[in-house]
Each structure stands twice: as structure tokens, then as C-alpha cells.
Amino acid sequence: MRIALIGATGRTGTYALHTALDRGHSVTVLVRDPGRLPADTRERVRVVVGDATDPAALADLLTGADAVVSALGPAGRQPHLHTRTARALVELMSTTGPRRFVGISGAGIDVPGDQKTTKDKLISRLIQTLGGEVVKDKPAEYQVWAASDLDWSLVRPPRLVDGPASDRPLEHHAHRSTRSTRITRSDLGAFLIDTVEQGLYPRLAPFTATPR
Q1: Alpha-carbon distance 78 to 75, whole Å?
Q2: Where is this region: Disordered (predicted)?
């Protein structure tokens, strides 16, 4: 598969990149600083230099791709980064393709059909109330994808931590809260690639977590 990857130099994106390459996929990455790419992957990818909200850079990134994977993390200096990126991608993907997108959202957002526990509902309400503009970016991003006719998935992880990949299957469900309240960045990076490879959760925002 030919994967266009956004956020490849981030703490989760690095794992997504290694997973995709280790599984034999052809990867094009969009980065602002190519020097931040891991040395062992730099010669194995096609590199597009630019910003995730730049239509020209995104058009180059998407050329020949079968799917787009975004591992963009929070950006305090760009509180609307994910929504702006989503709008730019939807416009391009709706006209020139590809039609498959997998990205990262957050467990604190609510979507139709959710079956969150009372505790998780309270946590979500607190996050949405106290989280500021960066947190508001996530529900807005979801609305952009939901309004499109593209084949998208927005993965909703809980608290991200460092650590090795789990040797057990991850918890994941389209609407039901996970029992675990954490996920390693290595597990999340791999799950992004699992989702795009297996066509999981089309037009849904699944919860996922490292098992306790």
C-alpha cells in the first residue's frame, strides 16, 4: 500500500512510520524539517517538505497515495491546526483522491452513538470545559470529516504514555469506552496502520487503549 503520512517526526508518528515501513508499505511523509526524520528511515521514504495546512504541499503528498494517515499531535501555537488540516485534506481528497483517511482524535470528544461510562462522560465534560481552544479543535475536526463523503476513521485514544508495544491485542470499540485509561505511543502508531490496512471503522471514531 502507498501511504501518505502526516506527523511522521512526532512521538506517535515515528512509531507509525516504522510500522508502515516494517510491513512493506511505500511511504511518503510530509515534514517541516527533514532533519528530524530518524536516520534509519530517511532513505526509505519520499519526503515532501511543508506544512500540514498548505494545499500545495498536501497535493504533492497525496500524489499516487492509496491512503492518508495523520499522526499530528496537539499544537499549542496553532490551536485550530487539526480542523484547518482536515478542511484542506477533504477538499483535495474529494476531487483527486485518495479517499481513505485515518487520524488521531481524542477520547474526550463525543460522537453520536457513544456508550461512555458515567465516569468517562464526566471526564469528557471537564476536558471540553477546561481544555481551551486546542481541545475545541478536535470536535471541530470531527465535524469536517463527518460532513464529507470520504472513507475516514478518527482514532480516540486515552492518555498517551511512552512504553513498549503490547504483546496482547489492544482494546478497541467504535462507541464503548475502554477499560484501560492509557495507551502507549508505540501501540497507537501501530493501530493507525492496522486501521488503514484492514479497513477498520469506516466513518467512525473508535476508542482504543493498551490493555491493562
Answers
A1: 5
A2: 162-181
In terms of Cβ atoms closer than 10 Å to its own Cβ (0-12, 13-18, 19+), residue 77 is: exposed
6 phi/psi in degrees, rounded to 5: -105, 135
Work out the number of other CB atoms within 10 angstroms of the CB of residue 208.
24
Rounded to whole angstroms, how far apart are CA atoms 174 and 155? 9
Domain count, the chain: 1
* Distance between CA atoms of residues 136 and 130, nearest Å: 10
Specify the amino acid at residue 126.
Answer: L
54-85: per-residue pLDDT in tens?
999 999 999 999 999 999 987 656 779 999 99
Cα dihedral 196/82/73/78 (nearest 10): 160
Which CATH number goes with the domain that contains 109? 3.40.50.720
